[in-house]
Amino acid sequence: MKKVIVLLIAILAFGANQVWAQAKADVKFEKTTYNVGDFSEASPVVSAEYTFTNVGDAPLVIHQAVASCGCTVPEYTKEPILPGKTGTVKVTYNGEGKLPGYFKKSITLRTNAKTEMIRLFIEGNMTAK
């Protein structure tokens, strides 16, 4: 009976070790906040591009990118990013109809990386015409 219990404990320990040792994607952004600087209300659309690398050991997938408001639109690499490879997230801010001044908007990414939620920021200052 003791041998059976010891054997079961050994099997459980081995199985738990295999679950923890599974490959996992991990993402590293060059920067998570992009300041577009000053731009005119006469030309209210600006964009920022964020470059990231999969520093994990499994393919990285961005499941979803959600902006904090309708004036900010994210586009991102849809196919899985292999370990060691890079991808991009492009964010476009449209200040048309907005009051001039400073803004800071966020984009939340949902991924399969170790850190499942990542927040990016775009900020700048729209000046009057």
Write the layout of secondary structure elements.
Elements: H1 2-20, E1 27-29, E2 33-40, E3 45-54, E4 62-67, E5 72-76, E6 86-94, E7 101-111, E8 117-127
Parallel strand pairs: 2-8
Antiparallel strand pairs: 1-3, 3-6, 4-7, 5-6, 7-8
Largest sheet, spatial ordering of strands: 1-3-6-5
Q: How many distinct helices? A: 1
Q: Termini, distance in Å?
A: 85 Å
Low-confidence stretches at least 5 residues in length (pLDDT < 50)? 16-20
Mean pLDDT, as a whole number?
90
Give the helices and strands as they follow along the chain.
HEEEEEEEE
Rounded radius of gyration (Å): 22 Å
Percentage of β-strand residues: over 45%
Largest sheet: 4 strands, antiparallel
Structural class by SSE content: mainly beta
Tally of extended strands? Answer: 8
Q: So what's the overall shape? A: elongated
- DSSP helix fraction: 10-25%
Give a summary of the structure in a few sentences.
The protein has 1 helix and 8 strands, in the order αββββββββ.
Q: What attributes characterize this protein structure?
A:
mainly beta; single chain; elongated; 129 residues
Structure description:
Helix content is 15%, strand content 49%. The protein is mainly beta and 129 residues long. It is elongated and about 85 Å long.
